[in-house]
Amino acid sequence: MFIMKPLFSKGPETESAVTSQIGLWLFCLTLACLPLIYPAVPPYTDVFGHIGRYHVQINSSKIDILASWYSFEWTIIPNLGYDILMQILGPILGVEPATKLLVILSQAICAASILWVSKSQYGSVKFGAVMAIPFLYHYAFNYGFLNYSLSLGLAFGAFVTWRKLHKTPVIRLVTFSLLSSVLFVCHIYGWAIMCILIGSDTLVKNIETKESWMHAFWATTKSCLILTLPFVAYYFFLSGSYDSSKNMFVYKSFIRKLAFIFMAVRDRWAVWDIMAILVVIGIVVFAIRNTKFKIDKTMALALVICCLIYFIMPSTLLGSAFADMRLVPVIFILALLMIDDVEQTYKWLLGFDYPALATAAAAIPENGFDYLWALNLNAQKPGPDWTLIDKNELSTIYKYVGATP
User: Fold this and answer.
1) 344: phi > 0 → left, psi -120 to 50 → alpha, else beta; which?
2) Separation CA 250–CA 151 (nearest Å)
3) What is this structure's pTM?
4) Helix (H, G, I), strand (E, B), or coil: what is residue 76?
5) Environment class of residue 197 by beta-carbon count within 10 Å: exposed (0-12), middle (13-18) or buried (19+)?
6) What is the rounded CA–CA span in Å between residue 384 and residue 57?
7) Which candidate among 5, 85, 335, 366 keeps its CA 20 to 30 Å from the CA of 68?
8) Per DSSP, what are the bridge partners of residue 320?
9) What percent of the chain is modeled with pLDDT above 70?
10) Taking all residues of the chain, what is their mean pLDDT, rounded to a whole number?
């Protein structure tokens, strides 16, 4: 609690307040990364499949047995964040250590970006931003959707960068012609979230200064046009990279979408997970109805847009399953970021909600006990020596990467 008092103080920043702000940032970054420190390999569903692919990517040209069964060819698709970074770190650290390092850095980037958004919007980190940190252990992350999770942090960071460069439009234009392309290649979801955030912020500001909604909308379109550059380039020149034989668009039941809302931090105990989400929803509703809170218009507009997209979009999009589910943690993060406790009256809500939310987000059950289980059974076992594998040892490869011949 020694962090909370100066953090949420209303006066000018004293030396102790600045120290406590630094302490809060360190606390949040530690919280975001701590569950990933202990296991040798993050034990998420898709991670082991990724590791198998990374081995093919890094070692197929060096090991004959891999080359005889697999080939690896680069092409540009909006889902390459970890693959590009692995090409740099994999040969240096090894695939498994590089994977662990990248997952930890990804969570740290996401946590820092959320805090940075709050600092940019309100001048200090609000309790809603701290409450949003456990949502980094969302259902999609626990599935092992690594590129998406990384792009989420980059999207929030890009949004703040856009705001910081508002006085230098030329520099912003050049920066985001590159940054939007990088984010698009990392994962298309991160690029889309960045566009929603920047578009919402720009539209809100234009509505306040322009004569009409039409003028505001047109000014926003012109300002944000540079963000569409990578999408347009990809659609016209590179969209053939996707396998069109996949189910590109599948819409499943509306009830399934409602259920995913309560699976935002899904772990193994449904009652606990659902109760934690209900508490968060209750706090957001309380903040909206209470005059002592101020609701940030930018975050609120982005939240409404994300909610509309979530209920309209198909469950499978461009061949990717759980496309809609990935928006759920973003919705909750935006809902918490839009709360500005102006009078700092309700900072106690953080202490009320945080233990339940953090454990429901797998900080204790899955990422604690299950990590110990994974560590004891699998994670500390050394992987096969790829230089010694011959054709009689294919079963070792299959067992290691979780595949079947």
Assistant:
1) left
2) 23
3) 0.82
4) coil
5) buried
6) 16
7) 85
8) 317
9) 76
10) 80
- In order of 156, 294, 346, the CA distances from 161 in angstroms are 9, 24, 29
Structure tokens that stand for 375 in this block: 């560590």
Task: Identify the residue whose tokens are 């985001």.
Answer: 176
Q: Which residues contact 93 (CB under 8 A, 6 or more apart)?
A: 101
CB 59 within 8 A of CB 94: no
> How many whole angstroms separate alpha carbon 19 and alpha carbon 22?
5
| Band of pLDDT at residue 5, cut at 50, 70 and 90 | very low
Percent helix, percent strand, percent coil in the chain, to nearest 5 = 70, 0, 25
Is 284 a residue whose pLDDT tops 80?
Answer: yes
What is the spatial distance between Cα 274 and Cα 307, in angstroms, rounded to a whole number? 19
Taking a C-beta distance cutoff of 8 angstroms, is the pair 142, 167 a contact? Answer: no
How far out from the chain centre does Cα 55 lie? 25
Residue range 39-54, pLDDT digits in tens: 888 888 889 899 999 9
Kindly tell me the burial class for residue 192, based on how many C-beta atoms sit within 10 Å of its own C-beta (0-12, 13-18, 19 or more). Answer: buried
Specify the amino acid at residue 155: A
Instruction: State the average pLDDT over residues 103-126.
Output: 93
Residue 117 has pLDDT above 90, yes or no: yes
Residue 357: which of 305, 303, 280, 293 has the closest Cα?
280
Distance CA 231, CA 188 (A): 9
